[in-house]
Design brief:
heterodimer, A: 426 residues, alpha/beta, Glutaredoxin, FAD/NAD(P)-binding domain, seven-stranded mixed sheet, five-stranded parallel sheet, globular, B: 212 residues, Rossmann fold, six-stranded parallel sheet, four-stranded mixed sheet, 10 strands
Chain lengths: 426, 212
């Protein structure tokens, strides 16, 4: 046995990813591997010695980047997330021809539902576009979740929940987004991006939200090149001694600030509102405002970006001031609320509010006009389609907190039972 | 970095134990509360480990040339049959989750590793630079499985200490410098003479030269 367990990293070979540091494709794969907890080594294509060590040659054709070397030695040139997922055997076929409950999204609401549904004997499948955990999975430390007095990271909570759901027999199909849902008798059929079809007697949308886009020129061009949506869990180490700007006033922004302050030389938090109290938990406000290398700028918005091949500075406009402020920055993390992920629901025309969140309960029947087909009203978390439920951040009126999402996910299972009893077979 | 080993030392500590020595060590282990299992080859040992680890078990595999050589490290980390703690630790943020990482490594359900010496009297000797592996082996882990190449069997504890200092340490120091860019050190030594919980520790003695 070795005497030195240096960093407790896996001892078997992981993925080697060669790419340009400022690269959208490279970042997408880094983010995917990181969020799935898959070990990888990032090699900067601009460092000939490092490239030679893994490829045997000091240069690699730019068109071949990002180049991914899988653990079995096979290479994927100009690799995509989908190719890497397939290459790593992460894409499994569903084991059953029909499920009692198909859950869309493996964030806190989806995993909460999966654990409860599977533990109660429902044939349960969860489909997830990227990785278990959802937005909460990228949170470095949740300190107000019941039962974890010293806090738990979003990824660890997701890992534990995934193990728990699988232990009860739930299936998780990862790395494939939902492309559509259609009616199939009293149930539904969900289609995934690789053509897989999932038949579910009931469907639960727990698809959460994605980060709202920052409407500033140049943001899209710099994604992965210093600009990131969310807390960018794969990027924390790369921020060592750098200057970081975080935009947003919610808990995700606060948690990102606390995490990056451990690595970065300086972190600036830009908040559009007058203070942090409007949308951030007090415990996080206390932490953020007490960290010496963190500066909070309220009533401040991003007005522009300065960049060459990567981000160099954020131009911010503060309050009523006419003169913008230039903040030198190596990385910008955008954590500004969310937009509901309901693309896959388009085929069944669920009722949403003006912002796109799924309407549930009696409001769903009212808003649907005369299209609600049953004599009874929709159940509390039921959408405008019988047997289609919504829980967590994607649901109109939900409390945007991890604990609330988990609670809704488990509550939805009780309602699913009622629906299944209604259509028979339970 | 290549270790400079005295040829006589290398010869002494790489020679496979005889059948009698293996039998003596196995019998002594049993007397000491450690379950001995014998394997003719590394492949057999791999199968034995697989039969001892239940599906879905939470497993911490120590850094071990032996486990890597016979494929056990691969089975634990990549087969999907278990919950490999190393993968969970990998995704944790050292700055934010140090406490969680410490508790996870200290008390796995199953710890799988090897030793630096096994005496004919049934004592197990394990050296460590950081000490992190030793607590779980002594008491933190629910179950301990140790895979031991038969060249690690020595006459007694003094011979085991010589094996650690004169043979294992130079090789391990070279490995640590290559792998991590830092030196190793015999900073902690665990000697397991007796185990009070029957069946908690299993020692698989393999009749092959495995690890160092």
């Amino acid at each position: 046995m070795s005497m030195f367990d240096y960093d407790a990293r896996p001892v078997t070979p992981g993925v080697v990813l060669v790419g340009a540091t400022a690269s959208r494709g490279g970042y997408a794969i880094r983010d995917f591997l990181s969020r799935n907890g898959y070990p990888f080594e990032w090699v900067d294509a601009g460092q000939p010695e490092a490239v030679r060590a893994v490829l045997g040659a000091g240069e690699v054709e730019p068109s071949a980047l990002p180049l991914c070397i899988l653990p079995d030695g096979s290479r994927l040139a100009a690799a995509t997330v989908e190719q890497v997922a397939v290459g790593l055997g992460m894409v499994a076929a569903p084991a059953r021809s029909e499920y009692d409950l198909a859950i869309v999204g493996a964030g806190p609401a989806g995993l909460g539902a999966a654990v409860n549904a599977a533990s109660e004997g429902l044939r349960t499948v969860v489909v997830e576009a990227v990785a278990p955990g959802g937005q909460a999975g990228t949170t470095s430390m949740i300190e107000n979740y019941l039962g974890f007095p010293t806090g738990i990271s979003g990824s660890e909570l997701a890992t534990r929940a995934t193990v728990q759901a699988r232990r009860f027999g739930a299936e998780l199909l990862l790395a494939r987004p939902l492309t559509g849902v259609s009616a199939d008798g009293p149930g539904y059929v969900a289609g995934l991006s690789d053509g897989t079809l999932i038949r579910g007697r009931a469907v639960l949308f727990a698809s959460g939200v994605e980060w709202r886009r920052l409407d500033v020129a140049g943001v899209d061009d710099l994604l992965g090149a210093g600009v990131y949506y969310g807390a960018g869990p794969s990027e924390a180490l790369a921020c060592t001694d750098s200057r970081v700007v975080v935009v947003g006033g919610g808990n995700s922004a606060g948690q990102a600030v606390v995490r990056f302050s451990r690595y970065a030389q300086h972190v600036t938090l830009l908040v559009r509102g007058r203070d942090l109290g409007a949308s951030m938990s007090q415990y996080l406000i206390d932490q953020v405002t007490a960290i010496p290398n963190v500066e909070v700028r309220v009533r401040t918005q991003v007005a522009g970006l300065e960049a060459d091949d990567r981000l160099r500075a954020v131009i911010a406009r503060c309050g009523d001031s006419i003169e913008p402020v230039r903040l030198p920055a190596d990385a910008l993390f955008i954590c500004i609320g969310g937009a509901p992920r309901t693309d896959g629901a388009a085929g069944i025309e669920l009722v949403t509010n003006a912002a796109g969140y799924l309407v549930t309960g009696s409001d769903a029947a009212n808003d649907a006009g005369g299209s609600w087909p049953l004599a009874r009203e929709p159940l509390p978390l039921e959408t405008s389609r019988p047997g289609v439920f919504a829980a967590g951040d994607v649901r109109c009126g939900s409390v945007k907190r991890c604990a609330a999402a988990i609670g809704e996910g488990s509550m939805a299972v009780a309602l699913v039972h009622r629906r299944l009893a209604e259509v028979g077979g339970e | 970095m290549v270790a400079n080993l005295d040829a006589a030392v290398a010869a002494e500590f790489t020679e496979l134990a005889t059948g009698e020595q293996i039998a003596a060590a196995a019998a002594a282990l049993e007397r000491n509360g450690i379950r001995p299992l014998l394997a003719a080859t590394g492949a057999d040992a791999r199968e034995l480990v697989g039969s001892l680890l239940p599906d879905g078990a939470e497993v911490y595999n120590n850094t071990s040339q032996t486990l890597q050589a016979i494929g056990v490290a691969d089975d634990i980390e990549r087969s999907g049959r278990y919950q490999p703690l190393r993968l969970r630790l990998y995704r944790m943020d050292r700055e934010m989750q140090g406490r969680e990482m410490r508790t996870l490594t200290a008390s796995p359900d199953y710890a799988v590793g090897s030793v630096h010496a096994l005496t004919e009297g049934g004592s197990l000797l394990i050296a460590s630079a950081s000490g992190s592996q030793l607590g779980p082996l002594a008491s933190g882990a629910g179950q301990v499985i140790l895979v031991i190449g038969a060249q690690k069997i020595v006459r007694d504890v003094p011979a085991g200490m010589r094996r650690i200092y004169e043979y294992c340490y130079p090789l391990e120091d070279a490995r640590a410098r290559r792998a991590y860019g830092v030196p190793s050190g015999v900073n902690n030594i665990l000697i397991i003479n007796k185990v009070l919980t029957p069946g908690r520790v299993t020692a698989i003695i393999v009749n092959e030269r495995l690890g160092f």
